[in-house]
Write a structure and sequence with these properties.
alpha+beta; 8 helices
Length: 245
């Protein structure tokens, strides 16, 4: 038995009303910020984490497992006082809430970002075919299709959201060559489900759109399916941490 006594201290109606009014005013002010504002802040904090990684750290991380790299990034974000004070939260292996069960590598939320969040699927990348396929779409003989980007294309990740992201850990080869290979693979992505075609990009120009604060990054938008029908396309942010330098 616990010896802790829990004391209930009643709050007056005037205090409750004051809190509600304060919260209402705050939400009205925060409603001025759109999705781009929150995404920009998240990308800036991720860039700060990358810039804080020393040469020795990069060598260790380059030879670490994907989960270990992701955990390092999450811990650095959670230790960042400004990240926390600004109201951001990040979790790893958070579960989606849908029929297609999936666990997010990184999920970013904010207390004022109503009904929105950013999911990042993390993958080590190089120019090898197996790494490229794992990042985009992987076909196996004995298992269901998989792949980091593929999970967004079937609405398994970022379910019914209009955007999501990939965080690639460049662990080998020239970063420019890796990015080129990934773009080539994404350009060729055209999947089928019954009579439906999906996965292909709609705006090729997005592949040349950089992402603020990131030396290596681009964007793409894809036709997406869910329960045997085409649904709202998804916009993907492709971010990269270069561990080769």
């Amino acid at each position: 038995m616990s010896n802790v006594d829990f004391l209930y201290i009643p709050t007056s109606s005037s205090e409750s009303n004051a809190f509600k009014e304060m919260r209402q005013r705050h939400l009205q002010e925060s409603s001025k910020f759109d999705d781009n504002f929150y995404l920009t802040q998240i990308f800036a904090y991720l860039s700060t984490v990358y810039n804080s990684i020393t040469a020795d750290d990069r060598e260790v991380l380059r030879n670490s497992k994907e989960e270990e790299i992701t955990d390092h990034i999450r811990r650095q974000l959670q230790k960042n006082e400004n990240f926390v004070l600004d109201g951001f939260m990040v979790n790893s292996e958070a579960r989606n809430q849908d029929k297609l069960i999936g666990y997010y590598d990184l999920k970013f939320e904010h207390s004022d970002w109503i009904s929105q969040y950013l999911v990042l699927e993390c993958k080590p990348v190089s120019i090898s075919k197996s790494r490229i396929n794992a990042y985009i779409h992987n076909v196996t003989k004995h298992k269901e299709d998989d792949g980091g980007l593929y999970r967004f294309l079937i609405n398994k990740y970022a379910t019914n959201k209009s955007f999501g992201g990939m965080l690639g850990y460049i662990i080998n080869n020239n970063p420019d060559d890796v990015i080129t290979k990934l773009k080539e693979g994404i350009l060729l992505c055209n999947l089928t489900h019954g009579k439906l075609s999906f996965g292909y990009i709609q705006n090729h120009n997005l592949l040349n759109c950089p992402i603020a604060s990131f030396r290596y990054g681009f964007q793409s938008d894809h036709v997406r399916i869910y329960e045997d029908q085409i649904i709202t396309p998804i916009h993907i942010f492709h971010l990269f941490f270069d561990f080769t330098q």
